[in-house]
Amino acid sequence: MNGALWAANACAHACAYACAACAVLGIGYTMLASVLIGRFFARPVAELNRCPPVTVVKPLHGSEWALLHNLSTFCEQNYAGPVQFLFGVHDAMDPALQAVDELRRLHPQADISVIADSSLYGPNRKISNIINMLPHARHDVLVFADSDVGVGPDYLRTIVGELERPGVGLVTCVYRGEPDPGFWPRLSAAATHYQFLPGVVTGLALGLARPCFGQTIAMTRATLEKIGGFMPFVRHLAEDHAIGEAVRALGQKVSIPPLAVSHACVEASPAQLVSHELRWSRTIRSVDPLGHLGSVLMHPLALALLAAAFSGSARWAWLIAALAVSARFALKFSADRALRRTHGGLWLLPIWDIVSFSIFVASFWSSRVIWRGFSFKVDGDGLLSAAPDE
Known about the structure:
Blueprint: H1 2-41, E1 54-59, H2 67-74, E2 83-89, H3 96-106, E3 111-116, H4 125-133, E4 141-144, E5 149-150, H5 155-163, E6 168-172, E7 174-179, H6 183-205, E8 217-220, H7 221-226, H8 239-249, E9 253-255, E10 260-265, H9 270-287, H10 289-294, H11 300-310, H12 315-339, H13 348-362, E11 368-371, E12 374-378, E13 384-386
Parallel strand pairs: 1-2, 1-4, 2-3, 6-9, 7-10
Antiparallel strand pairs: 4-8, 5-10, 6-8, 11-12, 12-13
């Protein structure tokens, strides 16, 4: 019995030291990210030498609280060239079209077309929607943007200027959270600002990340044709990542300018928030398993608390937890300053850190995701297949 107790205590102490070591590394990562995020947004944007005609392609699905506002930001651009707007739905009665009707009224000068086509080519309904719209695109510079994205007035100038740089085949953007009213959307925005964004910036700086985000994908028609159009991506969960890799395979660069578009955080309940974050986490796990495993270092507070639990509340473990909280607050202030946000909602950060770590652990339990109300299984190549409810 004494031997078993000794073994249990030894195991607990080993776990405590392992968690503490990871927490210390996580604190170092967090402090590095707080420096890099400011440098990322301080970079100059590309100069725009001309304003070629652009087609903006936006797949829509359902009504969203800020949909009209987000769509309007695309019609309020400081861009001298012609801009065509394509909005696509699978159902001609989709409530999102009410926002498009109002958009036409508010911006009568905008060149707006709506494509309603129920054709599906694979489980990724967003890609099917885009494929249905593409025959109606008149211009050779194509900008694809999700429905829940809002942008500033210099968005197109920045994107097109970046796309004209030598060797650039695709331009994408990081994003910040724009929460709907309520606690859960605010928690979702905290996830975007203080976990997603620092992780991307740090990964880019260290050469460990090769991202491409569906919030913005800009490329020429010629590049799109070289990667085979969108049909090769109809079964991909992370179609944006796959598109970026296809462009890189051509020997072209994927450029990320110092510009953050807004992404609507609409999760109105804990179930919706967890489902969305689990889908994101399992997506990362499917396309970058080692990177996903290494992202445990993004959770220094949770790791320090585990160290405290395994060590029997040792004083040194609580000191590490205090340092983790301080590092996370420092990162929050740096991110807020870089994004030109106010410093409110400090109390949300520790809450999110615990929720986020729980989601990270849960992401290893299953390959099932819920997307737009449909259930899918994700295989080792990040491809979707229909899945029965578990």
